[in-house]
TrEMBL record:
Any coiled-coil regions, as ranges: none
UniProt cross-references to SMART domains, sorted A to Z: TPR (SM00028)
Source species of the chain: Paragonimus skrjabini miyazakii
Gene Ontology cellular-component annotations: NatA complex
Highest rank taxon of the organism: Eukaryota
Database matches in Pfam families: NatA_aux_su (PF12569), TPR_8 (PF13181)
TPR repeat coordinates: 84-117
Keyword field: Repeat, TPR repeat
UniProt-recorded name of the protein: Uncharacterized protein
InterPro entries found in the cross-reference section: NatA_aux_su, TPR-like_helical_dom_sf, TPR_rpt
Length: 572
C-alpha cells in the first residue's frame, strides 16, 4: 500500500517485518498483521515507532476495536508527525467515522509530505467526489493523470469530473486524447460503454449532429442495442428529423412493447411538438401499437386513459372481460388512476352491473350468450365489484358481497385480504388487522401478505404482534426489529414511528425517525466504493446517472414523510 513508507528509522530486520504488516493489511489478514506489528513494538527501541503504531491502530480498527485503534493512531502521529503514512492512516480512520472533511485535511497533509503518492491522491479524489467538491477533484485527478497517463481510469476520472462541472468540450477533448494514446480498445462491453458515454457527452454539449455521426460510425462496436437506439431516437427528435426518429422508435417498441420509455419516444416522434404531446397524438400512437401488437399489455392499459365516452366504454369492456376470464386479482388496482374521473367510474359501475345481470341470467358476461363462462369468472367478477364498492365508500355492500363469496369459496385468500382492506379503508384498523392475520394464516409462505399483515398490525397499535409477524421472514439471530432496520425497511420504521407518536411514546417515535434519516445517509455513503469502481469498469453513464440521483435522494416521498413526522414529534 505504501511503497515509500518513511520507515528508515527501522533496521533491516524490523523494516522487513513492517513490510509484512502492510502486506497482511492489504490482504485483509488483520490478525496476522497485528501479530507482526506487536513484534516491532515489543522491542523497547521501537515501542514508539510512529508508522507501526499507526498501522496497529488501523488493523485494530478493521477488527472493530475502534476506541483502542484511535489511541494507537494518535500516538503514531504524535511520534512521527512528518510521516505521510501516519497522516494517511489518520485520514482513513476519519473516513471510517464518516468525518469526510477531516479525512480530506489529513490526505492534504499527507500529500504535502509526499506529493506524488498515488494511493493518497486516489483516496482524496474519492472523498472530493463524495462531497461534490468538483473543483478540488479536478485538480487531484489531473495530478493522477500526469502520474499515470497509461491507465484509462486516470483519463476517465478526469473526463467525468469535467462532465459534472459542465465542461463538456474539455471532457470530450480528454476522451479523444485518451483514444490517441491507447487506441479504441478491443470490441466488448467497455468499448461499447465508452462510445455511448461519448455520445451522451456530445448530446449534453448540444452537439447532436456530431453525436449522431459518432453513433453511426461506431454502431458495429456497440453491444447495448437498446441504448444505441434510444440515443439515436432522442438525437433525431431534437434535430427535428421525426421520420427517421420514428423508424428507430418502432425498432425499440418491436424489441419490447411494454417499455414505457420506448412508447414515449414513439409518441414524441409522432408529435409535431415533441415536448408537448397532445392527447390525439398519444391516442394515435397507442392505436398503431395495438394494430401491430393486439395483446400488448401496457398499450391496452394506457390507451384507456386517453379515451372518453363511447370509445372508452368499448375499450374498457374488452379489457375487463379478458382479465375477468383469465382471473386477474390486481385488475382494479391496475386501472385505479381512471377511477378518479367520475365519468369513467360511472362507466365502470354500468359495465359491472351489466356483467352481474348477464351472469345471473345466462352465466355469460355478454348480453347475447355465445359462450358460457367458467365458474371462476363469477368469483373474479365479485372480487372486482367488491373493490369498486370499497373505492366508492359503500363499505357494507362490499362486505356483504365478500362474505357471500367466502361462504362459497372459504379458502380463497384474496377475499380475506380484500375484507381487511375494506375495514381498513372504513377506518376500523383493528378489525382490518384481524382479517389480514386470517389471510396470512391461509398462506404462510406469501411474503407480500405477511408484509401487509405486519403493516396493518402496526397501524392497529399491535406492535409486538407486528414484530412477531415480520420475524417469520427474517433471518439470522438478530431480532425482527433489528433485521428490518438493517435491511432499510423504510415503510415499517415510518409506520411504527407514526403509531408510537399516537401512543405518546415521543422518544421512541423520534428514534425511529432518526433511523430512517440514518438509512438515507448510509445510501449516500454507499457511493464511496463506486467513485473508483465505475472508472475501472467503464460504466460511466450509469455512474453519472447515479451521482445525479444521489444529489436528489432526499426528494423521495418517504424522506418527506419521515421529516414531516419528525417535525410534528419535535413540536409536541
Amino acid at each position: 500500500m505504501w511503497k515509500h513508507a518513511n520507515s528508515n528509522t527501522l533496521p533491516p530486520k524490523e523494516l522487513s517485518i513492517f513490510k509484512r504488516v502492510v502486506k497482511y493489511y492489504d490482504q485483509k489478514q488483520y490478525k496476522n498483521g497485528l501479530k507482526y506489528a506487536k513484534q516491532i513494538l515489543g522491542n523497547p527501541k521501537f515501542a514508539e515507532h510512529g508508522e507501526t503504531l499507526a498501522m496497529k491502530g488501523m488493523l485494530l480498527n478493521c477488527l472493530g476495536k475502534k476506541e483502542e485503534s484511535r489511541e494507537y493512531v494518535k500516538r503514531g502521529l504524535k511520534a512521527n508527525i512528518s510521516s505521510f503514512v501516519c497522516w494517511h492512516i489518520y485520514g482513513l480512520i476519519q473516513k471510517s467515522d464518516r468525518k469526510f472533511d477531516e479525512a480530506i485535511k489529513c490526505y492534504v497533509q499527507a500529500l504535502r509530505l509526499d506529493s506524488e503518492n498515488l494511493q493518497v491522491l486516489r483516496d482524496l479524489s474519492v472523498l472530493q467526489m463524495q462531497l461534490r467538491n468538483y473543483e478540488g477533484c479536478k485538480d487531484t485527478r489531473y495530478k493522477l493523470l500526469m502520474l499515470r497517463p497509461s491507465q484509462s481510469a486516470s483519463w476517465l476520472g478526469y473526463a467525468v469530473v469535467h462532465h459534472l462541472l459542465g465542461n463538456y468540450d474539455i471532457a470530450l477533448t480528454v476522451l479523444n486524447e485518451m483514444n490517441k494514446g491507447q487506441g479504441d480498445g478491443a470490441p466488448g462491453y467497455e468499448t461499447s460503454e465508452l462510445i455511448l458515454y461519448r455520445a451522451m457527452l456530445m448530446m449534453e454539449a448540444g452537439k447532436h449532429e456530431q453525436a449522431l455521426n459518432h453513433l453511426n460510425d461506431s454502431a458495429k462496436d456497440i453491444v447495448d442495442i437498446d441504448s444505441l437506439l434510444e440515443l439515436k431516437t432522442k438525437i433525431l427528435i431534437h434535430m427535428g428529423n421525426l421520420e427517421e426518429a420514428k423508424v428507430h422508435a418502432w425498432e425499440l417498441v418491436d424489441r419490447n412493447t411494454d417499455n414505457l420509455l420506448h412508447i414515449e419516444l414513439l409518441c414524441r416522434a409522432n408529435s409535431v411538438d415533441s415536448e408537448n404531446i397532445d392527447v390525439s397524438t398519444r391516442r394515435h400512437t397507442f392505436e398503431e401499437i395495438l394494430e401491430r401488437y393486439p395483446t400488448a399489455r401496457l398499450a391496452r392499459r394506457r390507451v384507456l386513459e386517453l379515451y372518453s365516452g363511447a370509445q372508452f366504454t368499448v375499450h374498457l369492456d374488452n379489457y375487463l372481460k379478458q382479465h375477468l376470464r383469465k382471473g386477474s386479482p390486481p385488475l382494479f388496482i391496475q386501472l385505479k388512476k381512471l377511477w378518479f374521473d367520475p365519468e369513467k367510474l360511472e362507466t365502470l359501475e354500468t359495465l359491472l352491473n351489466n356483467y352481474r345481470r348477464n351472469m345471473e341470467l345466462h352465466q355469460s358476461l355478454q348480453s347475447d350468450p355465445i359462450i358460457e363462462e367458467p365458474p371462476s369468472t363469477t368469483v373474479w367478477l365479485n372480487y372486482l365489484i367488491a373493490q369498486f364498492l370499497n373505492f366508492s365508500g359503500r363499505y357494507q355492500e362490499a362486505l356483504d358481497l365478500v362474505d357471500s363469496q367466502l361462504s362459497a369459496t372459504p379458502t380463497l385468500v384474496d377475499f380475506y385480504v380484500l375484507k381487511a382492506d375494506i375495514y381498513n379503508t372504513a377506518g376500523d384498523v383493528i378489525t382490518a388487522s384481524r382479517w389480514m392475520e386470517e389471510a396470512q394464516s391461509l398462506d404462510t409462505a406469501d411474503r407480500y401478505i405477511n408484509a401487509r399483515c405486519t403493516k396493518f398490525m402496526v397501524q392497529a397499535h399491535r406492535l409486538d404482534d407486528a414484530i412477531a409477524m415480520a420475524s417469520k421472514f427474517t433471518r439470522g439471530n438478530t431480532s425482527a426489529l433489528e433485521y428490518l432496520s438493517e435491511m432499510q425497511c423504510m415503510w415499517f420504521l415510518i409506520e411504527s414511528a407514526r403509531t408510537l407518536k399516537r401512543l405518546s411514546k415521543i422518544g421512541e417515535s423520534l428514534k425511529l425517525c432518526h433511523e430512517v434519516e440514518q438509512h438515507y445517509r448510509n445510501i449516500l455513503d454507499d457511493q464511496l466504493d463506486f467513485h473508483s469502481y465505475c472508472l475501472r469498469k467503464g460504466t460511466l453513464r450509469a455512474y453519472i446517472e447515479t451521482v445525479r440521483l444521489e444529489d436528489r435522494l432526499r426528494d423521495h416521498p418517504s424522506y418527506f414523510d419521515v421529516a414531516h413526522l419528525a417535525i410534528k414529534v419535535r413540536l409536541l
